[in-house]
Design goal:
6 helices, single chain, three-stranded antiparallel β-sheet, Serine Threonine Protein Phosphatase 5, Tetratricopeptide repeat, disordered N terminus, binds zinc ion
Length: 181
């Protein structure tokens, strides 16, 4: 799926130095099941992305923060990052993507026994979101990407990366180029 540059911030610039190290650490902690430690790192990276006017990356990082805090059982902080995700998408007119993100967040909350928070989120957003059909990427189907980004260790989802052509995509988190098979 395309988020449509330049409306939504364009292709993410590569993340450098200290921030790439923080992202890598956050992903490693997450992969090791240390969600309570990973969450604040994703939250900090999301704030950095916002400060640098990179809403697309901020959304991805807020989603990861919400996921981490949800798995850690921290319902209130999960809601903070879930709202940041959805509000940013809606502010940029991405109603279809916001609907998909809401579904993903609600499923994650309920899976982590945070049903009250899921109900709150659903109540807040369901009236503002249309049930939009997912956008199909134009052109030929892209190739298969590695499961994990070799630079930042983030999980790679073909519907979240920014496709450059049918063989190359930019990681949604660190902006490094991923090559499809
Ligand atoms: Zn990456």
């Amino acid at each position: 799926m395309r988020w449509g540059p330049p409306l939504f911030g364009g292709r993410p610039r590569p993340l450098r130095g200290g921030l790439l190290a923080v992202l890598h650490e956050a992903n490693q902690l997450f992969n090791a099941g240390r969600y309570q430690e990973a969450g604040p790192l994703f939250a900090r990276l999301a704030q950095e992305a916002e400060a640098h006017h990179m809403p697309r990356r901020a959304v991805q990082l807020h989603l990861r923060a919400a996921e981490s805090f949800g798995l850690a059982g921290n319902g209130q902080t999960t809601l903070v990052h879930a709202r940041a995700t959805l509000d940013t998408m809606l502010a940029h007119g991405r109603t279809g993507q916001a609907s998909q993100a809401l579904e993903r967040l609600l499923a994650a909350l309920r899976r982590n026994n945070l049903a009250a928070e899921a109900d709150t989120l659903q109540r807040e957003y369901q009236g503002r979101l249309s049930v939009a059909a997912p956008m199909e990427p134009a052109g030929q189907p892209p190739g298969r990407l590695p499961a994990q980004c070799p630079q930042c260790a983030a999980p790679v989802r073909s519907d979240e990366v920014e496709w450059i052509d049918s063989h190359n995509a930019a990681c949604a988190y660190c902006g490094s180029i991923l090559q499809a098979e």
